Amino acid sequence: MTLESGPSATGPILEVNDLAVSFGRGAWPAVRGLDFRLNPGEVVGLVGESGSGKSMTAYSLLGLLPFGARLDRGSILFQGEDLALLPPKARRNLLGRRLGMIFQEPLTALNPVYSIGEQVAEIFRIRAGLNRKEARARAIELLGQVGLPRPEGAYASYPHRFSGGMRQRVVIAMALALNPDLVIADEPTTALDPTIAAQIIRLIQSLTAQRGSAVLFITHNLRLLIGLAKRVLVMYHGLIVEELTDFQDLRHPYSQGLWRALPPEPGTGADRRLIPIPGQAPGPGELIPGCAFAPRCPQAQEICHRELPLLKTLAPARRVRCHLSC
Amino acid sequence: MLRAQRVYKTFRPAKSLGQEFLSLFRKVEKDGVQAVRGVDLEARPGEILGLVGESGSGKSTLGRLLSGLYVPDAGQILMAGQDLARFSKAERSRFHQRVQFMFQDPSSALNPRLTAQATLTEGLIIHRLGNRAQRKEKVAHLLAEVGLDPSMATRYPHQFSGGQRQRLGLARALCLDPEILVADEPASSLDVSIQAQIINLLLDLKEKRGLTMVLISHDLPLVAHLADRVAVMYGGLILEIIPQKLLGQIDHHPYVRALWSSTLAKGDYVLPGEPPDPQSPPPGCPFEPRCPETLALCQESAPPLKANQPDHWLACHAR
Question: N or C terminus of chain A: which is more exposed, having fewer CB within 10 Å?
Fold first, then answer.
């Protein structure tokens, strides 16, 4: 079979060192030096608001940076191989086979002029070398697995006939078709209604667990990750500010602020007013001396405006970038 | 105060020229999208009434019906007991002063070619309020009220951030000093930290101006936290109206229970299926195809909205 995945490593499946991405040849840094690793089969959350660089991180891992964006420095070790040094063709060959991507907006991720089935079968034909008949059979089987009713009928339908939830199921089918070792899910439920979002999260969870794929789950909603991710990275202004495993123990003032800004659980008798983070997030081009969060931080000291705090390791899988909360 | 009484609204696709011609000789009917299918709801003075539903549930259409932006196909919109459809032109103009609508997406709701100043004075000019100097003063006051710097009056919408644009949208809704504000997803396009700022601003202004507010959102936890009463819509109908105190305390409609568990990340129950097609909704209860506790009756007729406890209304055959 040609469907086997890459070498089974015992170490981390993905190791990112000092990754930096910018627009306009360094003029607008989007990602400013990330270090993190993912272990095989692990589900890790990546949280940040718009402009924090979380999506650019995903695109740089896949080698799909948009026009005008550039990888400035850093290494992306995927199963021991540095993707940043790989020629584009070799890199493209990994996509779909060992690296899967679930996009935010399923409508733009699907091609409107090909049927759903052709798009799924294409992966089996091109990436796995199956013939048309085999590919079709595999695609129909997979469409059934992701919960599309009447998969034969769905095979011949076009994306516009499907609801947002059903389209996202198709995108998931394409991402998981060849049992990739790592799946990157970029806000897969943001465009969906709550009851449908719950279905999609369940589906991603069960299918990736079956296949033993690691998942990098990117979202702006910290609460969504409870029960889903064992480990969470919080990004702000292009940097990781906190890595955590326990949602009850948030140390960085930004993570704390994000958590507190959500409406509290009902029945807690809390005040109606919410607790916002003052000010607004800096744009990618803005240069902020010291800690980027300091201008909005309620606890900021003089040192915070002067010196960028280091991402200190407190324990395994527990890092915080703050002068004060260590 | 502001009340919808048995209102219906169906959107029909425009007929093509050929169909237009044929319709001279015989009836040509196209299936319409039945957005609101007979809804009773009243906003009481001074309250925050939450209107929750998923996309296609009819919540935005109902909000627009309430604020007079759409005309109902059947049923009435009553303002202080008076039918909006029978208003004279002057009365209608007065109604629009008293009831204002705040749009969901500020980047498409604001005219990109008007400055903040022009955006905010448009309503005042139409209603012939104040002279030039007074209007200018009013704009400065409004901007300050929503937390923007009055010097921003000369800026265009694209020069504001998302949160600031939403503040500008709010200032526009308030420029005629309305009594009722219908806010459609006021914070859903914003990041969490900014969302809380806008919600607090809405709460402050509601307090200060004594507004009645209809808050439309898909976010049940948010609305449950803010509203005095929450009306939950599904498939063009209201399934339940719940006073805030009773939320989570009583035996809810099966849909409300599913929505509750799916949004609070408890994950104990995931609702199967998808919402009904608004072009051909099921003949009975709209939730029947997904409901875990259906009866034979549910397929035949939509359950009426009945008072269950004081102030608690429920539309379910099984409850």
Answer: N
